[in-house]
Structures are given as C-alpha cells and as structure tokens.
Amino acid sequence: MTIAVKQQSGKKSINKRKVLQNDLSILARDIIANAGVGMYIVQDGKFVYVSELYQKITGFTEEELIGTYPLDNIHPDDMKTVREKAIKCLKEGNCNPYEYRFITKSGEIIWVLEAVTSISFKGERAALGSFINITERKLIEKKLHHEEQLFRTLTDQSSDIIAIIDRKGVITYENKAIEPVLGLKVDEQMGGKGFDNLHPDDVPFVSNELKRLFADPDASASRSEVRLRHKNGQWLVFEFMASGLVNNNVVEAVMINLRDITERKRAEESLRFSEEKYRTILENIQEGYFEVDLAGNLTFYNDPVCEIMGYTREELMSMNYKKYTGNEMAVKVYQAFNKVYLSGNSTKEIDWQIIRKDGARRYIEASVSLQKDFSGHPKGFKGIIRDITERKEMDQKLNHLATHDALTGLPNRILFMDRLQVALVQSRRNRNKLAVMMLDLDHFKDVNDTLGHLAGDKLLQEVGNRLTDILRHNDTVARLGGDEFVVLLSDLERMEYAAGVAKVILKAFGKPFLLADHEITPNVSIGIAFFPDDCDDVESLLQKSDMAMYSVKTHGRNSYKFYSHIAS
Question: pTM for the full model?
Fold first, then answer.
C-alpha cells in the first residue's frame, strides 16, 4: 500500500510539472508576441521559429521563412560583418546589438538592430535572435550628419570668424577664417579661453553678454563691436554677433560671429549701419530671412524663403502676409508683430501655419525683431523662418501614441484621467453630475484560448467601435488594459441617464460580433459611480466604479450596478 501511494504521488508531481511547463510555454509566447521586437530561433543554421512581428517587419510569412537560412536576406555588403558579430555573440554570451541592412520580401532595404544569444530549444543548442526596424532612426542620423557637414562647409567658406564657446568659456569650435584674419592657427585656439586675444577694455562687455545669453534661452542675439589682437600685435576692429544655441530650453553654448570691419571703420564710420553687412551671409544660410514693411508687405527675402513658400522671387515681392497665412492665422501673425512693435523687443520661436502656392499647409518657426531707419524710427520687421512641419507632425504622432491605446485607438488611462479631471472641475462649476462606468468583458480569456489572440484583439477593437457609436460626442470611452474599458458621462442632470446608457450598451452587446467566421456574443459587466454622490475625486470614482463592476460579476454578470447599491 505504501509503494502504491508513492507511485500515485509521483504521477501527480509529473502532471504538475507538465502543467507548469505548458503555462510557462504560453507565457513565453505571450511575452514574445508583445515584446515589441521581431524574434526568431535558428537551429542548425535554419529558422525553426519566427514571431509575428518578425514576419511583419520582413514581409515574409512563417511558411516562407521556416527552414531557410537567416543570411539569405542580409545585404551582401553587410553579410560578412553580421556573420562575425553573430558568431562572437554566441561564443562570448555577452552581445552588444549590431546594425545591418536587411532586404525585405518586397525588395525594400531597411536598417535593423539585431542581437542574438545562445539558448536550448527542444533539448538542443539554438540561437535566439531579436531585431527591430531602425530605418527611420538611421535616416535621422544621416540627416544630422549631413547638416553638420553642411554647417562646417558653410562656416569654413565664410570670411568671418565663427566660434562656439561652451558654458565654461572654452572654445569648442572655430572655423578656418581665423588663420587669414588674425594669423592664428585653429589648433592653437581650440580648447582655449575665448578672451585670450580680446582687448582688456572689451572683456567686461563680452563676459556680460555671454552670461546674459546663457541665463535666458529666449534672450535676443547681441551685436556690437570688439577689438582683437592680430598675431603681429596689431589691434583689429570686429563686428561682434552672438546668439545662444538652445537645446531643450537650455542654452548649451553660444555661437559668436566676428567680422573684420577695421578697414571699413577707417574708411567710413557710417557704413556700420549698412544693410550690405549681413545680406551676403543671409544668402548663404539655410534658414529663411525676410524683411517686411509696417503693413506686412515683403520687401526683402532670401532664396530659402522662396523655397519654403513655393513662390518665385518675383511673385513674393510686395506680397502681404495675409496672402500666405489665411484669415485665422493672419490674426496670430499680426498680434506677434504688433507685440514686437510696441515693446521693441525681439521675439523667438513663433509657430505659424503658412499656405504655399500649391495650397499645401506647412508649419514654420519664426523669430522677429523690429527694423529701424537711421533716425531710429520703426520702418518694418525682419526675421528668420525655418520649416518645422516634420517636427510638428512627429510631435503630434508621439503625443497620440502617448495618450491612446495602440490596439483600439481609444484614449488610454493617461488621457482618460486628464479628461476626467477636467470634467470634475466643470461639474463643480456647473453644479451637475457625471458618471464613470467601468466595463469588463465576461470570459474574454475563452476567446483568446479558442480563437486565438488575433481574434481577441479584433474583438477588443470592435468593442471599442461599438461603444464609440453608442456614446455622445462629448462623452469619452477609453481602454484601460486587457478587456477593461471605462466610460465618462459628463454633464448629467439625472442619474437615470447613466442607467439608460448602460441598458443601451447591454442591448448592443447582445448583437453578435463576427470574428474569423465565428459569431461571438460576449457578456459585459458594468459598474457605475457618480460624482458628487459617491465621491469627489478621480481615483475614488475609478475605484468605486470598479467595485460596482466586480459586484456584477459576482452576482451573475451581463448586467450593471450602481456603487450606491452595493455600498448601502
């Protein structure tokens, strides 16, 4: 009898291990499916597993990949490097991700970031690989590299001395113009202090200007005259221009432009105010420079302005700003220019939307300052514009990703909490009610287990669509996660309205959803909490609506319940 009991106990232990292994396998698949990176397993040099995201990135199906060699679709120029790095990773066990070009099924060449590690798969040695598409990042890096090269090319062609000074007062960059102008070598200046060749009487001014620019990201550019000593000991007069280089609202460095005006000063002092002193520079920069009269008519602009606006030089001449801004944006532009006119202070980083000649709308960033005549009277405005459309669009995309659920497109918890907070403030002000409805699909796991996660995802998307169609335009439906949704009903006069909405939802969910040729009629449990009757803060509303929802699940499901009914 004792031996029999032990054998039975051993069988139970084996069964428990099998169940645990199965659960771990399911967990591993879920982790891979939601990892955000394409994953694969290679054994004996061939694919034995590829994740859905890997298939999506490469364009190949699982059937097309299983049994093939990973190196087949690597760019020929990168194949040797990839092979060497992969072997090194597998041997050393400590792998730094590496980049290479991959040829997708469609023939498109993309950049990927890959890492591999050695694993045991089905009792034998294998390699687990993961990679992500970094094509967009590589394009950005290429663009930044191009812009850096362009900057150096432009500055090295300039006859002006252009220098960049960090917050410690150390020269971190200087163009080649310093050699013919001051007789100094670039190597001699790099890493030195920016005041070494400055006239002692000009040191306080330059020092104060640098402090001002470093202290305020919105500080206007400075312009004056300073004296620098030539290598032969002669003092030369330079036009001094400085502006802050801002990153994330912090001035990381100051760029200084020094133009030798010694001969000009000797010849005629009045030429100091001539417009020609800066127009040569403006035609060689990538940013758009413009001048307008007090009525807003263009009087001068460089080629980048024409490129941004889509008009020829002849078409832009004397064109009024209302022509390319539209009525609504024209008001904003007028207000910005008027502020500069009244204060006399320059303004930076004004965001405008312009209308190109072809009708396309673009976003520009502008800095504007007042332009005066020789008598000191305002005669117009001048400024710099740059096209920031791509940056604006990227910011909008990133904001949407941060505030919306990736699967359903509904607001996520962050956006819902923000809207709920605003609604609470409005309800307090208007002395009305609002309701928070917590919704949970009953037995949603059964859908994933029977029809698969793709069907489950499709069901969640359709649920979101159906809820959106039911609600008012000023109500909010959000997905908190999994099969849990939440609804905000604002501006309520009576609690009965929420009950009516709940009934409509239950009725709507009584109509089946078509998923993969299967009709699914999920039950939904709804919990409702009210402001101010049940509580008066955001977290409590969510908590109590959740409690009411779980009460529904406990007492039969597929119904709704008020928190007040379970709390009484």
Answer: 0.41
Cα separation, 306 vs 11, in Å, equals 82
**Domain range enclosing 90:** 19-133
State the average pLDDT over residues 314-319: 91
Residues 529, 424 share a domain: yes
Pick the closest to residue 104 from 53, 60, 49 (CA basis): 60
Domain count, the chain: 4
Cβ atoms 528, 437 nearer than 8 A: yes
Q: Give the Cα separation of 113 and 91 in Å (integer).
A: 19
> Cα–Cα distance between 475 and 490 in angstroms, integer?
6
Predicted local distance difference test score (pLDDT) of residue 568: 63
List, for residues 541-568, the tens digit of each pLDDT value.
999 999 999 999 888 888 999 998 886 6
Q: At what angle do helices 389-403 and 413-430 cross, to 10 degrees?
A: 80
Asked whether residue 147 is domain-assigned, the answer is: no
Choose among 173, 214, 210: nearest CA to 191.
173
The pLDDT value given to residue 478: 92
* DSSP symbols for 142-195: HHHHHHHHHHHHHHHH-SSEEEEEETTSBEEEE-TTHHHHHS--HHHHTTSBTT
190 shares a domain with 53 = no
Asked, as a colleague might, if the bond just before 180 is cis with ω within 30 of 0, I would say: no
pLDDT reading at 55 higher than 50:
yes
Residue 19 pLDDT greater than 50, yes or no = no
Asked if residue 379 and residue 321 are part of one domain, the reply reads yes
Structure tokens at 503: 């009934």
SS3 at position 278: helix
Widest CA span of the chain, in angstroms? Answer: 119
Report pLDDT digits (tens) over 230-239.
Answer: 888 899 898 8
